[in-house]
Design brief:
The protein has 91 residues and is an alpha+beta fold. It contains two helices and four strands. It has helices spanning 13-22, 72-86, and strands at residues 2-9, 35-39, 42-53, 59-69. A hairpin with a 2-residue loop joins β2 (35-39) and β3. The N and C termini lie far apart (39 Å).
């Protein structure tokens, strides 16, 4: 079993859960933290959401997700698909 934790900022928690489902996970029964999304050979736990201060007036949300997979190959494939979903283009 392999594990990886990501901190994602500025993306609503509901969008992140939807992205995990789009990556092949089963929709969670409810969205009470911790939210668990399970796929074939992997599991993602949305652990917590908190507000992070960037400047004295600018705050963003930070969501922490722990990924578990049966092996490195499964984890890497999942993370590659998930990162494409959360990619944001600057302007």
């Amino acid at each position: 079993m392999v594990e990886h934790v990501l901190e994602l900022r500025g993306i609503p928690l509901s969008h992140l859960v939807a992205y995990l489902v789009e990556c092949g996970g089963d929709p969670p029964p409810d969205e009470t933290l911790p939210i668990v999304v399970q796929g074939h050979g992997w599991q993602a736990e949305v652990l917590r959401e908190e507000s992070v201060r960037i400047t004295s007036r600018f705050h963003v949300n930070a969501v922490f997700i722990r990924f578990h997979a049966d092996d490195d190959h499964t984890l890497n494939r999942l993370l590659d698909r998930f990162r494409i979903k959360v990619m944001r283009v600057g302007g």
